[in-house]
């Protein structure tokens, strides 16, 4: 039975992702936040359980990507749809502007391609190549929470097409790019070799304290910036 435990955890990731999508449809940001957190926890937990129980299977790997497709692909696409829509798609009285919210699912398509590439890419055992889908989704959930709670008076501003459309394009590109990004896996227990991870962890704590709900988006931007700094330093070192 133990070989089924990681798959059960993965299915819980899928379950919480589905609930989060429903919560977006009905406008419940607290449920979205809780379910996003639980999906991320399950996404980490299935791999941890597989290593702890010393079980793995090709089915588990595929199942993980399928669950992630909902939790970190469909969910952010639905959030963009709701932020861009502000109502419902009026199919009985069609206007070209009604198609604008559908651009949110460009993010979903990019996430799908990202997950498919990740399954075949053997280079990402320690760090990431391109922005991983849970992190990208964290940024989108942050925008949703800023809008819902009007954080720092930016509720309406983050729902403007002039801001959201470039964000969709940039984050879709980052997920599919060859841009190297550090992972959260610590290499040993000391400071050496883990400098950027310790710095990032400290910044995460501070940003949650100072930015509240907006912290999710700020943390992802910090992560991207730190990854760029690390990449530039390593590139210069190779030269």
Verbal overview:
The chain is built from 8 helices and 2 strands; from the N terminus they run H-H-H-H-E-H-H-E-H-H. The chain has 239 residues and is mostly helical. It has one domain (2-89, 96-238): Four Helix Bundle (Hemerythrin (Met), subunit A). Strands 1-2 form a two-stranded antiparallel sheet. The termini are far apart. 33% of the residues are buried.
Strand order within the widest sheet?
A: 1-2
Classify the fold: give the CATH topology: Four Helix Bundle (Hemerythrin (Met), subunit A)
Q: Ends: how far apart?
A: 52 Å
Tally of DSSP β-strands = 2
Q: Beta fraction of the residues?
A: under 5%
Enumerate the spans where pLDDT stays under 50 for 5 or more consecutive residues: none
- The structural class is mainly alpha
* Helix content range: 55-70%
Molecular shape = globular
> What is the tally of helical segments?
8
Major beta-sheet overview: 2 strands, antiparallel
- What is the H-and-E element order? HHHHEHHEHH
* CATH class label: Mainly Alpha
Question: For this structure, what is the CATH homologous superfamily?
Answer: CDP-alcohol phosphotransferase transmembrane (TM) domain
Write down the Rg.
Answer: 18 Å
How many independent structural domains? 1
Concise summary:
The protein contains eight helices and two strands, in the order ααααβααβαα.
Key attributes of the depicted protein:
239 residues; globular; single chain; Four Helix Bundle (Hemerythrin (Met), subunit A); 8 helices; two-stranded antiparallel sheet; mainly alpha
